[in-house]
Design brief:
By secondary structure, this protein is an alpha+beta fold. It has one domain: Cyclic Phosphodiesterase, Chain: A. The chain contains 6 helices and 8 strands, in the order βαβαββααβαβββα. Strand 7 and strand 8 form a beta hairpin. Helix 2 runs antiparallel to helix 3. The longest helix is centred in the first third of the chain and has 18 residues.
């Protein structure tokens, strides 16, 4: 391979993104961490709850990944997600807490199972530990010292949103940040059928 050729693999991950107004509020908090606590790593992606952690995928094989995600999303129903307050993975990560509902746990488990069976895509670490849904606002470049300064400020802070999730999002790494690549809407036909019946 000569240097002028683009790499054949790109990094992706699959997530649930809150509505734009909620993303805006979460981004304000990320910017606060950047300005006050010198932690900007969380600004490299839109606010999200990860379902499938980052993985490498052949660009030529992207149609198969897209087909699998389309197929999966058509079998899902919209559900409510609740963000409530802050929590932490001490001593380096502060996040907006996500209510662990049966629908959220179910979609994550179903997605991982679907990707494994249809694409042989497996994230071994995720298989060996329970799913802990969270929306990160500071991590990686948050020093332990800054963590212990920020945590008392955020541990009892209020942040509450309840909203409908009706799609999953595929994000792609552009070399420095994560961009939205494509979105896959859930099957809302059943709701329409209920209205007609």
């Amino acid at each position: 391979m000569n240097n002028s050729q683009k790499p054949s693999k790109k990094r992706f991950f699959i997530a649930l993104l809150p509505p734009k107004d909620v993303q805006k509020e979460a981004t304000k908090i990320k910017k606060y961490f950047k300005d006050i606590y010198n932690s900007k790593a969380a600004l490299k992606s839109p606010p999200h709850v990860t379902l499938q952690p980052p993985f490498e995928w052949e660009i030529e094989d992207l149609p198969n990944l897209i087909q699998a995600l389309n197929h999966f999303s058509q079998s899902q129903q919209p559900f409510f997600m609740t963000l409530n307050g802050f929590s932490a993975f001490k001593p380096r990560v502060i996040y907006i807490d996500v209510l662990k509902t049966s629908e959220l746990l179910s979609i994550q488990k179903s997605l991982m199972s679907h990707l494994e069976s249809s694409l042989n895509l497996v994230h071994s670490v995720s298989k060996s530990r329970p799913f802990a849904p969270h929306l990160t606002v500071a991590f990686r470049d948050l020093t332990k010292k800054n963590f212990y300064q920020a945590w008392p400020e955020f541990k009892d802070k209020e942040f509450y949103y309840n909203f409908m999730i009706n799609e999953i999002t595929l994000l792609i790494h552009n070399g420095s940040n994560w961009d939205i690549h494509s979105e896959y809407c859930f099957n809302q036909l059943n709701d329409l059928q209920k209205l007609i019946l």
